[in-house]
Design a protein that fits this description.
The structure holds 2 protein chains of 2 kinds.
Chain A: E1 5-7, E2 10-13, E3 19-24, E4 31-37, E5 44-50, E6 53-57, E7 64-68, E8 74-78, E9 87-94, E10 101-102, E11 106-110
Parallel strand pairs in A: 2-11
Antiparallel strand pairs in A: 1-3, 3-8, 4-5, 4-9, 5-6, 7-8, 9-10, 9-11
Chain B: E1 4-6, E2 11-14, E3 19-25, E4 32-38, E5 45-51, E6 56-59, E7 62-67, E8 72-77, E9 86-93, H1 95-98, E10 103-105, E11 109-114
Parallel strand pairs in B: 2-11
Antiparallel strand pairs in B: 1-3, 3-8, 4-5, 4-9, 6-7, 7-8, 9-10, 9-11
The chains are: A mainly beta, B mainly beta.
Chain lengths: 111, 115
Amino acid sequence: EAGVTQSPTHLIKTRGQQATLRCSPISGHTSVYWYQQALGLGLQFLLWYDEGEERNRGNFPPRFSGRQFPNYSSELNVNALELEDSALYLCASSLRGDEQYFGPGTRLTVT
Amino acid sequence: SQKIEQNSEALNIQEGKTATLTCNYTNYSPAYLQWYRQDPGRGPVFLLLIRENEKEKRKERLKVTFDTTLKQSLFHITASQPADSATYLCALDMRRRTGRRALTFGSGTRLQVQP
């Protein structure tokens, strides 16, 4: 069974640009979670999507947004990039809402 | 808000010994607590989940305890191996606090097992 996949692996953007990150959950999982992990820091919860709807949002500004498609894959968009947005962005999927299965992450670098 | 404390300093132990990692939390007690392993530059891997009505959970060489009175979980790795070297994250369910499904992660404890 394929795990959670994320693309791209690395993304380099300049300040003010927009970034789009993609995630495909494990087959059959309907929930997708997004986290930000800045260097040396813990995972910060960003967004939770389930059945195509945004269900919960972490303490991040509105320029962090996303969506979930009918096939349960998800996209995270970060607008007006700032230097402090540089981090590893992790996507996780879940079936029952308990344990989460993480992808390898997208390393976003903002210069 | 909920605060999770894990040993910020690395834990160094000798191969074959038991590693014990601590996760303390403040405020409300979660319905369940999870432990994950994270290797550098990679996503966390789910290890164990323990519910509030369970005192202890085991999986192979791993054991987790959950004491809601002390607001603490202990994570044990017995007969540790150098391959167990990684950062271990504790995560708490947020449902009781927010009414919605989410996890709050601790900052993790880095375990180094010396051969």
